[in-house]
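anyone seen this seq b4? input:
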Amino acid sequence: MAENTRDGIAPELAELKEVDELGSFLEEYGRPVLIGVGLGLALVLGLAAYQGHKHSTRERAAVQLSSAGTLQDFEAIVREYPASPSAPLAALCAAALHYDTGQYLLAQQAYERFQEIYPDHPMALMTPIGKGYCQEASGELEDGLATFSAFAEDHEEHFLYPIALLGRARCLIQLRRFEEAKAVYDGYVASHEDDHWLPRMESELLYLEKEMRAKPEDVPAFTPDGAFPFITMPPIQ
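predicted toks r here
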């Protein structure tokens, strides 16, 4: 029978990992403990203190994130609790807040930085979509088109796939490539009969066809929505 593992790590390796982490912790917090106390007892007490420190740090970061509402709040969480689960979420919220306030270059840089720091995070694939939104809102339509298109081609089964297609179509419309934009909507409608995004795609298609019949050059340019989709910002205090 296979040995039990903790977080996917064999027990003996997990213990070595914790001892190594404990060393760093004691270096900063526990040196006085070793004075006049048996080393074995100090390690036991130090390990318990370290584990409690990790949990309390995560809890503090989570509480701080739940009450955050400003850019400074989110950046403080990333800075003060970089190893906590709350830090990546705070980083995404900071990027979304930059976008929501029209700071598209800063938002794009924040999304790119997230990709570099947290490449394996479950929400990492949100960042190329965020980047595409920033490029589109900044008027970098060819770049935005390339970003949305690359995502759509590589992640057809991802839940953000329809968002990427909508971004691709918007960029095409603003580039006055109406037939290509129409093909994006047509393709989705034809291949996703029971999809919950179908009404949105059909609505966008009907609107585009109406505008094309009227006067194609008057098709409106992109107007940035609020915060980036799927990142709902708390009210700014």
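The chain is about 65% helix and 0% strand. The chain has a mean pLDDT of 78. kinda curious what u guys think
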